[in-house]
Design brief:
The complex is a heterotrimer of chains A (about 220), B (about 230) and C (about 220). With about 220 residues, chain A is an all-alpha fold. Helix content of chain A is about 85%, strand content about 0%. Classes of the chains: A mainly alpha (about 220), B alpha/beta (about 230), C mainly alpha (about 220). Chains B and C meet through loops of B and loops of C.
């Protein structure tokens, strides 16, 4: 039943997705022109740039997801339906993951292209880390966007609220990405990987538990 | 069966529900009249399970699966077509896949929008959207219908079609609670009539044989006097 | 005495004792050998940092209880704790650079305490801004509680990330933002300061809480 809701969301996010993809491409371009290739070795900054870009693209996704429900107040009808609140959260979570995932699939190749980073050998673990961190982002982002959407200045409120919570997984993601791109073995960064995994589990569970509070009256 | 018992609810300092209790059984249609701000919407939302009342409780036999809801907005997804919307809502209520198309087609036909089935909802006019909203609420064949001003936007023909549909449904044993501020709209359908003002029922009685005019008079008396 | 008056008394006592801390720190506590006079800020900096974090923990706990008990007093307490917490965080973030510049030569460093406090500061800001953006008190309390609980849960994660970050980028020996092992006299001053900040926290929270109550009755009446 969650998958069904998902499908629907995919249909609708047709238009939103395009703008997110373009946004990602633009941000990466801006970063590319903003740096001086001789000043700082690219490999040092590249992971940060990648993840900052992903973070901001993800925020776009989050805002859209619940906005769609509020348009004609479909949310009310969803709440009246037999679907449990937690299922609703998971459905939104999965949909957001897919959305952000697709954006990342667009962004990563562009990133490799612009910054000329050696990605081929570590593609699989890199994809793994991206997935791991994304789960954490989306878990918290989905919860917060459900709240923020009913306030004024929603687009501004979400980053203000969300970014502090994304810093631990962001730092972890950057560290692991940096290690991978520098050719270091994963065993060096197991601490960060454990942090990312713990963050994912804890916050996904917490968000699923807290979500009903945000939609019930 | 639908039961409400001692419902009280406040929003901040506004008392929206101030002690409402009643029971409805199969085949009854309760038409709720009341001015804006009398708490009709709040009552319906409590019955639907959207609001947990501060005091009292409301219960519908069959749970959320048995409830069909029409609120103030269309509850439709603008970018999807009419058919896609209906299919989605039917799936949400576990209507078997085989039945979905047939049911959608039938309802759209009854409400006069069959020819717009593959049009995105956002291009439809207010009245047409409302017809689709009604279809949406009925897709899963609910045994209890909670309708908040459902005639809004409907032209005379559509209103008549809808009334016919409702009559059929209550004849088959459904329970309907219909809130409106327009006396003409639901009066013939009503088995019971309630006037709500400032969160409480100032009148609750079977309609009997009274017509719209009588009801309107009684309403004015009851509400003005309250 | 009303809550506000009691709060004012407590705060007054706290402030007087704070002055006492200054006196003790400046006159009666020996100056630290390597860091000089600037190190005295430490007696304000550390307790403020501890209480900035404690405020968040209290918000988190109050939020959990609020969601179960629905008592609006818990929500008011959380709000008061946030308002006080953000001020304490600000104290840490300003005293940190003031301490840091003469000793390390830079205004800012990503040490454990400052990083944690910076993130806490942002969470407090977000919390207060969110509260400000919602007019319906029921909704506001519920949303704030959600953020409060998330904030509480985030604190250990921040600690761990900072810990790992620092082992990755070990600070040069001269940069030693954490407490040097303290000789007795300094320890006493520090503990005294902790006590004072505790009193200040309580006093400020009482006053802020009382203001919140006054605002609410004004709106209703």
């Amino acid at each position: 039943m969650i998958a069904r809701k998902d499908l629907v969301l995919e249909f609708r996010t047709r238009t939103a997705f395009l703008s997110a993809a373009v946004f990602t491409a633009l941000v990466l371009t801006v970063f590319n022109f903003g740096r001086d290739p001789t000043a700082v070795p690219t490999l040092d900054l590249a992971p940060s740039i990648l993840w900052v870009t992903f973070t901001f693209a993800a925020m776009l996704a989050f805002n859209r997801a619940f906005q769609l429900e509020l348009e004609n107040d479909a949310l009310d009808a969803l709440l009246v339906s037999p679907i449990s609140r937690s299922s609703l959260y998971l459905a939104k979570f999965v949909a957001n993951c897919v959305f952000v995932g697709v954006v990342e699939c667009v962004g990563l190749p562009l990133f490799v292209l612009f910054f000329d980073v050696p990605v081929w050998g570590v593609l699989a673990p890199l994809a793994g880390v991206i997935a791991l961190a994304t789960v954490g982002f989306v878990a918290v982002g989905t919860l917060f966007s459900a709240m923020v959407i009913r306030t004024r200045f929603a687009e501004l409120m979400l980053p203000v609220l969300l970014l502090p919570f994304l810093i631990p997984p962001l730092v972890g993601a950057v560290q692991v990405t940096a290690a991978l791109l520098a050719g270091r073995p994963l065993s060096e960064v197991t601490g960060w990987l454990r942090l990312l995994a713990a963050y994912d589990i804890v916050f996904l569970a917490l968000a699923a538990v807290l979500f009903p509070t945000t939609v019930n009256e | 069966m639908l039961r409400a018992e001692g419902l009280r609810h406040t929003f901040g300092s506004v008392r929206a529900l101030d002690g409402i209790s009643f029971t409805l059984s199969a085949g009854q249609t309760l038409v709720l009249f009341g001015p804006n701000g009398s708490g009709k919407t709040t009552l319906l939302r409590v019955l639907a399970g959207l609001i947990r009342p501060l005091e009292g409780y409301a219960a519908v036999t069959g749970g959320r699966r048995a409830v069909g809801w029409i609120g103030h907005q269309s509850h439709l997804y603008g970018h999807l077509t009419v058919r896609e919307n209906l299919r989605f809502w039917a799936a949400l209520y576990d209507v078997p896949a085989a039945q979905r198309e047939a049911r959608a087609g039938e309802l759209l036909h009854r409400l006069g929008v069959a020819d717009r089935a593959d049009v995105p909802v956002r291009v439809l006019s207010r009245g047409l959207t409302q017809r689709v909203t009604i279809a949406r609420a009925l897709m899963h064949d609910p045994s209890v219908l909670l309708l908040d001003e459902p005639f809004t936007g409907l032209d005379l023909a559509a209103a008549a079609q809808f009334r016919a549909l409702l009559a059929e449904l209550t004849g088959a044993g459904r329970i309907v609670v219909l809130a409106t501020h327009n006396v003409d709209e639901g009066v013939e359908l009503a088995t019971d009539v309630a006037f709500q003002a400032r969160g409480r029922f100032v009148h609750f009685a079977p309609r009997g044989t009274r017509g719209a005019g009588d009801i309107a008079d009684a309403y004015r008396l009851a509400v003005v006097g309250a | 005495m009303t809550l506000a008056q009691r709060g004012r008394w407590v705060t007054l006592v706290g402030l007087i004792l704070l002055a006492g801390v200054y006196v003790r720190a400046l006159a009666f506590t020996p100056t630290e050998a390597t860091q000089g006079l600037a190190q005295k800020i430490y007696y304000i900096h550390v307790p403020a940092a501890v209480w900035a974090e404690m405020s968040m923990i209290f918000i988190g706990l109050a939020s959990v209880f609020f969601l179960f008990l629905k008592d609006p007093r818990l929500d008011r307490f959380a709000e008061a704790s946030a308002q006080v917490g953000v001020i304490f965080a600000l104290v840490v973030l300003t005293t940190g650079p003031i301490w840091g510049k003469p000793i390390w030569g830079t205004w800012w460093t990503w040490d454990a305490r400052l990083t944690l406090t910076l993130l806490l500061f942002f969470i407090y800001l977000g919390y207060l801004v969110l509260r400000g953006a919602i007019t319906d008190p029921g909704l506001r309390a519920r949303y704030a509680a959600v953020i409060g609980i998330c904030g509480l849960v985030l604190v250990p994660f921040i600690h761990f990330s900072v810990l790992m970050f620092r082992t990755l980028h070990p600070q040069p020996i001269v940069l030693k933002p954490s407490a040097p092992s303290l000789p007795g006299v300094m320890l006493v001053t520090l503990l005294f300061s902790f006590g004072v900040f505790t009193i200040l926290y309580i006093g400020f929270v009482m006053q802020t809480y009382a203001i919140a109550v006054a605002n609410e009755t004004q709106v209703d009446g």
